[in-house]
């Protein structure tokens, strides 16, 4: 838990990810879709947080071991950032697939609101 709280305290990007998750998890839960779809959507959100934590750990380690600028240190940090970017892309793809109109979700949402 110390690592989680350290990330909340020292990593603005992790705080943004937490806000993103806090806002979208309730939406995923109330959607009229099956439990597996809900779980996959939430897992995609949590994956962003996991990758962000790993990226932050890598960046702090590089800064600790090599505080001066170095091309390899930049490459390492860029790769970690790319992993976070891919986690976001993954989340967007999962959510779009789950909410795609051909899945009938929009019809179920419309019926749910009209009750």
| CATH architecture type | Orthogonal Bundle
Overall shape: it is elongated
Pairing-aware structural class of the strands and helices? mainly alpha
Radius of gyration: 18 Å
The domain count comes to: 1
> What share of the residues lie within helices?
over 70%
Beta content comes to under 5%
Put simply, the count of helices is: 5
Low-confidence stretches: none
CATH class: Mainly Alpha
What does this 3D model show about the protein?
- Helix content is 85%, strand content 0%.
- By secondary structure, it is mainly alpha-helical.
- The chain has one domain: Helix Hairpins.
- α2 (12-30) runs antiparallel to α3 and α3 runs antiparallel to α4 (71-99).
- The termini are far apart.
Please specify the SSE layout and strand pairing.
Elements: H1 2-10, H2 12-30, H3 35-65, H4 71-99, H5 105-114
Keywords:
115 residues; mainly alpha; Helix Hairpins; elongated
Give a quick precis of the structure.
With 115 residues, this protein is mostly helical. It is built from five helices and no strands. The chain starts with a helix and ends with a helix.
